[in-house]
Amino acid sequence: METEKTLYSAIPMRTWRWLGVNEAYVPSDVVWNEKDVPAAADRKLSVAKGTVREETVVYRTEPSGRVTIDVAPGAKLHLTKVQLLPADKGHVDALEINVAEGAEAHVTIAELGAAETVTKVTINLNGDGALGDLAAIYLGSGSQKVDLNYVIRQAGRKTKAEMQVRGALKDRSEKIFRGTLDFIRGSKGSVGREREEVVLLNEGVRNRSVPLMLSGEDDVDGHHAVSVGKMDQEKLFYITSRGLDLSEAQRLVVEASFNPVLERIEDKALRAEIEQYIEERISDGK
Asked: What strands lie across the sheet with 190-200, from one edge to the other?
């Protein structure tokens, strides 16, 4: 008898069911109750008016987590979220950021670990002139499953949204990315940019990308795009002819793609840990 699945998140506007991207469910080995998250896994933070706050959230063993942040008028948030769970564990987490007038939220994310990861990020640009800047990387290897649901809602006037996501898939890994820019009615003069770049390191992976732009306002400027490409065979031949094996060549290609996002992480020790984790995942395929 099949165990009943727990719904975790959904795409803001449904598409054809046969694509399999409308909903995301909690991994079978994770216990999650949206209404009753354990206190240790539920963090509520705030950034005071006119101040700057640096915050880092790292998941190494935690099966679940939720972070909610309110950014007051004129404040700036620099948040780094990293997921580095072992390859045999499941993980779910949620991040929601509310950005007030003239405030900024700069978010850097690395989704790298776990056998199955399901995550959702919501940035609400509620105030006029609010800015939401999200940059993320993800890596799928072995039989890993990665499910991402990122939404930036632009409600205030003259808000700015930037979403750049870079990923790599190898072995038999699977990924779903839902990236949504939502221009709410009243968001006149707002600008939004969204782009995902995916590198497929071998045959046999499954990639599903769902760029979505919703608009209830006519005076807005929005753009979204997805680029999916296989590893360049000429580049691969050049690299391996210099004495590197396939996994080393793949690592170089992935690092080159991920560097623009990794460079945003100020903590050098954490960045080195992430780079080591990526190298190990590419090398062993687990």
From this structure: 52-59, 76-83, 104-111, 131-140, 160-169, 190-200, 220-230
Q: How far is it, in rounded angstroms, from Cα 34 to Cα 180?
A: 22
**Rounded to whole angstroms, how far apart are CA atoms 281 and 286?**
6
Closest by Cα among 48, 140, 67, 49 to 107: 67
pLDDT of amino acid 283:
79
Q: Is the pTM of this model over 0.90?
A: yes
Residue 286's pLDDT is 46
- Give me the percent of the chain exceeding a pLDDT of 70: 95
Domain boundaries of the chain, sorted by first residue:
7-231
Residues in contact with 186: Cβ distance below 8 Å, sequence separation at least 6, in sequence order = 155, 156, 157, 217
**113 alpha carbon, distance to own chain's centre:** 13
- 31-54 pLDDT, tens per residue? 877 776 766 688 999 999 999 999
Of 106-120, 178-192, 246-260, the range with the lowest mean pLDDT is 246-260
Q: Is 180 in contact with 150 (CB distance < 8 Å)?
A: yes
**Among candidate residues 158, 160, 150, the one with its CA nearest the CA of residue 223:** 160
